[in-house]
Amino acid sequence: MNNEANLIFIISSFCLAVVLILTRDRVPERMRRPMAIITIALVLFAFFLIVYNLFIIGA
User: Fold this and answer.
1) pTM more than 0.90
2) Residues with Cβ within 8 Å of residue 24, at least 6 apart in sequence
3) What is the pLDDT of residues 22-50, one digit of tens each?
4) What does the alpha-carbon distance between residue 10 and residue 12 come to, in Å, rounded to a whole number?
5) Of residues 39, 49, 44, 37, the one with CA closest to residue 8
6) How far is the CA of 39 from the CAs of 20, 32, 55, 57, in angstroms?
7) C-alpha dihedral sign at 36, 37, 38, 42
8) Largest alpha-carbon pair distance within the chain?
């Protein structure tokens, strides 16, 4: 498994979530909901990768 790629994805998804939260007033109204849904999906997948990697390390 490519741990470097996983780490980059995890960091970038959390950074996207932070940027979206901090700049929510500047995001156009019609893009706000789709961007939030995509960001939530990416962060959930990042959490899954974190838990999966912890199980792999423990095995």
Assistant:
1) no
2) 32
3) 999 999 999 999 999 999 999 999 999 99
4) 6
5) 49
6) 8, 11, 24, 27
7) positive
8) 46
